[in-house]
Every structure is written in C-alpha cells, then in structure tokens.
Amino acid sequence: MSQLDYNLLFDKPVEIDHGIYLHCPKVEDIAKDYEEFSRFCTVFTVEPFEIFATRRDVNDLTKRFPTIWSLMRHKDMNVPVGQDAFGFDSIYDAVVQSISYWTKLPVSVLDEEGNEAGFQLLGNGKIVYPDKEWIIDEEVFITIGNLIKDIIGYSGPDEELRPPLITSDASYKAWLNLYEQTIKSRARKSGSSVRLTDKILILSIKSDLRLLPADIMKMTLFIFNKLYIGLSAKEDYEQRFALFTSAKFTGVDAPDSWERRWKSLFNNNN
User: What is the spatial distance between Cα 199 and Cα 209, in angstroms, rounded to a whole number?
Assistant: First the structure.
C-alpha cells in the first residue's frame, strides 16, 4: 500500500509539499454546504473547452489556453473567466481560495513585521506562500488537482460537450444546436440524478455493514465514494449472476466478479 493510499484510507493528511498538507473533507462537512464544497472543486476539474464551448472561436481558444493555469496567467482572461466561469473575482482568486479550502492555509496572513505572507501572485505567473516558503507552479497545481479528483471521485470531463472542429458558420450552428439539445436533455434528467442525500441513505440501507447515516457522516469523502462504488458494483454483479443462473434466460454471459467490476469503476474515477 502506498503512503498516499494509506493516508486517504485512514484519514491522514496527504503531504503535497514539505509541510503542506491536503485535508480530505468529511461527508458531514460537505452535506452542511454542498454548494461551497462544489465551488472549491470546480477550478481543479473544469476544462477550458467546457468554458468556451459555445464560442465561435472555441478551437482557437482551447489551443491557446489548454489549461486553467494558462488562462490565469493571461491578463485579459484572468478576471472575466474567473467571474463568469467560477464566480470569483478572478481565476487567481478561485485558485487560491480553493487551495486554501483544501490545505486549510489562510488566504491572507501577516508575518512578524506586518507584511503579507499569504498567497501572492508573482510576475512570472507562479504563486508564492511566504509564510510556508511554498511556491506553486502549474505542475504543483496539477498535482493538487489530481489528488482532489481522486478524493471526490471525478470521472473526467463531459466528452459529449467537447466541441468538434469548427470549420464554418454552418458547422458552428450545427454544434450550437447539438450543444443546446444536450444541455436541455441533461436538465430534464437532472431530477433523477442521485444526490448526496440519496447516496447516504442508499449506503445505509443496502450495506451489509449496518451503517447508520450518523456513521456515514463521519466518513471522509474518499472512503464514502469508494464504498458507494463498491456497493453498486456488488449489487450489479448479484443481479447479473441471478440472470445467468436463471432457467428463464439463456445465452446470458457469466458476469465478472464484483471485485473486478469495482476495480474498473474505482479506476475510472481516478
């Protein structure tokens, strides 16, 4: 077992740099303010193509700005994209507020002489935290983002909303129509999506561990997500196995073990 797996499994802070730790939130913390939690995840999970999907020049923009970090470093993109896409004053503000949430480092802190020693944007585009002698560049930002994706069970960007190559006004119009139809379809289905509350109750009712909602609330989000994925895989296996052994159905393939199915779902969420 790696040190990372050990820390996540046993609710230990994950060291991302010397003396800098990432803290996995508890289900209870997220349930109290899910909107706030989601707000501090978005900057690590959204892709530029999702931000510019309806723009005529989406292909050019995603080529010029392949990452959120590259958008943050551009003086004409930092503020408007930060406000429109993330609801912060700027992308930089979204980045430091979100890192503060996950590391528990205050955004602003003064040193002994009264000088700012919290997050600061340098002229070279990096972010420094003098109080901890910590420098955040794009590589560190990506590392933090990958850890957070693992914790929250992020399965990747929505490929159905990835724009195709726009070569003409006609292809752009066709893409907009497809995009709008997809968004409307998602909106109609949103009422049937499984909410956090539903997942807590499902895990409590169906788990062989006899978990009460109060027990689940004390879990870290990492453990909760993995248990829920495992329960779903096991239930799917049992249903498929029942079909495979039933005399009423023929030609049904033997299902993979639920452990293999769980590993597949587990890896798809990393």
Answer: 15
Within 13 Å and on the Cβ side, how many CA atoms surround 46? 23
Rounded to 5 degrees, what are φ and ψ at 163?
-65, 145
Per-residue pLDDT of 20-47, as tens digits, reads 999 999 999 999 999 999 999 999 999 9
Amino acid at 44: F
Which of 217, 185, 181, 186 lies closest to 199, judged by CA?
217
Of 147, 159, 161, 99, the C-alpha closest to 126 is 99
Per DSSP, the residues of 81-114 read: HHHHHHSSSSHHHHHHHHHHHHH---S--B-TTS
pLDDT above 50 (res 229): yes
User: pTM score > 0.85 for this model?
Assistant: no
Task: Assign residue 87 a region (left: φ > 0; alpha: ψ between -120 and 50; beta: otherwise).
Answer: left
Q: Between the CA of residue 267 and those of 113, 155, 235, 262, what are the distances in Å?
A: 48, 9, 18, 8
Structure tokens of 32?
Answer: 């109290």
The DSSP 8-state label assigned to residue 252 in this structure reads P
- 77, two tokens: 């993109």
